[in-house]
Amino acid sequence: MSLGRRCALGLAGLAVLLGLWWLGTDVLSQAGGMARRFSPGATFVSLGQLLTGSDLPMHILVSLRRIAVGLGFALAIGVPLGLAIGSWRRLEATVSPAMQFLRMISPLSWMPIAVMVFGVGDDPVYFLLTFAAVWPIVLNTAAGVQQLDTRWLQLAQSVAATRWETLRHVILPGVLGHILTGVRLAIGILWIVLVPCEMLGVSAGMGYFILDTRDRLAYSELMAMVLMIGVLGFLLDAAARALYRYWRG
Q1: Apex CA 202: angle with CA 57 and CA 55, to 5°?
Q2: Mean of pLDDT over the chain
Q3: Out of 30, 98, 137, 240, which residue is the most buried by the measure of CB atoms under 10 Å away?
Q4: What's the rounded Cα separation, in Å, for the pair 21 and 102?
Q5: Residues 6+ apart with CB under 8 A from 115
Q6: How far apart are CA 17 and CA 21, in angstroms?
Q7: Organism's domain of life (predicted)?
Q8: Three-class secondary structure of residue 54 per DSSP
């Protein structure tokens, strides 16, 4: 399928979604009802006002910074751990049950503990985001190591490559695609977890802004923020997909 046709179909799908939104809030809802406050017309007007005449861009940048920090910590932990697990079967057998147990615990269930341990502010948010993002990176990195062509490793041994040289020139390039897949999955999880994490007593961020709009009864602004979260999440995923396609050439 050509790129133009794919774009046209994608736009058609978005148009259908927008139409359903309009039907649900403007056509099928009662006049003066709560649903009318979330209509597309009021939402887009509020979105334009927020982007040009409020501190919404600052909240967005704060949230993106937290995503970057959480993803950075997850990469720093997950890639070395995944390389180790994929390289040593005994280590995999030892840590796999504990790792599978931990990754099945919702990151949000750690919220009260994170606040008690780290206090309010950015630190508990970073912990929760890192905990959420590290598992897909670990698992995909380990899977990449285990799927490496053994002939590459044998070639490295035949030229007397050191462990560091083998890691740098054979293993890491061979598993980079798997790492990027893990990063894309991690970004999706991070974006879902971010908003509730930013309701932990922080004073900035998109989650905080949603609570602020609720408290002010600014419903069209609340819906505008929900729309902005969807747009930014879509763009982040598109960037991750583009990076993966670039790596594959």
Answers
A1: 20
A2: 84
A3: 137
A4: 38
A5: 124, 200, 201
A6: 6
A7: Bacteria
A8: coil
Extended strands (E) in the chain: none
For 2, the 3-state DSSP assignment is coil
Return the pLDDT at 38: 77
pTM above 0.70, yes or no: yes
178 close to 141: Cβ distance less than 8 angstroms = yes
- Is the Cβ–Cβ distance between 122 and 66 less than 8 Å? yes
Long-range contacts formed by 105-112: CB under 8 A, 24+ apart: 107/131, 107/132, 107/193, 107/197, 108/193, 108/196, 108/197, 111/196, 111/197, 111/200
Dihedral in degrees, nearest 10, Cα atoms 198, 137, 131, 93:
170
Pairwise CA distance, residues 29 & 13, whole Å:
23
Q: Give which of 173, 146, 139, 141 is closest to 87, Cα–Cα.
A: 146
Provide the pLDDT for residue 176: 85
Q: Is the dihedral of CA 130, 131, 136, 137 positive or negative?
A: positive
Question: pLDDT digits over 178-192, tens only?
Answer: 898 999 999 999 998
Burial 63-101 (b: 16+ CB within 10 A, else e): beebbeebbebbbebbbebbbbbbeeeeebeebeeebee
Q: Name which residue leads in pLDDT, 29 or 70.
A: 70
Q: For residues 78 and 31, give the distance between their C-alpha atoms in angstroms, rounded to a whole number.
A: 52
Tell me the one-letter amino acid at 8.
A
At residue 8, the 3 state secondary structure works out as helix
